Structure formats: structure tokens, C-alpha cells
Amino acid sequence: xxxxxxxxxxxxxxxxxxxxxxxxxxxxxxxxxxxxxxxxxxxxxxxxxxxxxxxxxxxxxxxxxxxxxxxxxxxxxxxxxxxxxxxxxxxxxxxxxxxxxxxxxxxxx
Length: 109
Description:
The protein has helices at 19-33, 64-70, 75-83, and strands spanning 5-14, 39-46, 53-61, 88-96.
């Protein structure tokens, strides 16, 4: 396996009153994806200034193209994608590549 890593920074704008239910759905997805060979870590955070926003920061071994070809097509992820409209108003995704890291050794960058 290559040492290359890709990170996804995903911001969700959650529908009013749906945040706790969405947390449960998202945590269920993370439990499934955390057993994948290329999975490194995931951090879920609430935005203190925008209470209806939730952010997940995922780190994966490989490239964006590889993630899209191998991870996005998983049946459990497709099921999750179908339910998103019940919980969120909007989602934005940033694709990142680690270049430096301080305080942990997740990326070894």
C-alpha cells in the first residue's frame, strides 16, 4: 500500500430538529467504514458558531480517485447516501492531501 493519503473535510447543514438523528446515522456509517483496509481515522465535530452544522474529517490511505473507485461504491455507503435528504439541507466536500502534522501521528506528514 502506498504512503499517500487523502482527507475529506465534509460540512453538513442539518435540517432543524434532525441533528441527533443524523448523528446516529453518521456514526453507524463510520462504524462500517472504519473496518475498511484503507481507513485511517474520522473525527466528527459540531460547529460551535453554526449549531445546525456538523463536520466530519476523514483520513484514508490512497488517492481521491482510488477512494471514489473503491470506497464510494460500497453498498453501505450507497444506502447512507439515499437517506441524506431526510437529514440535511446541504453538504460541501473538500478533498485534502496532508503536508504536515503536529501533535499526533495520524498522517506521518
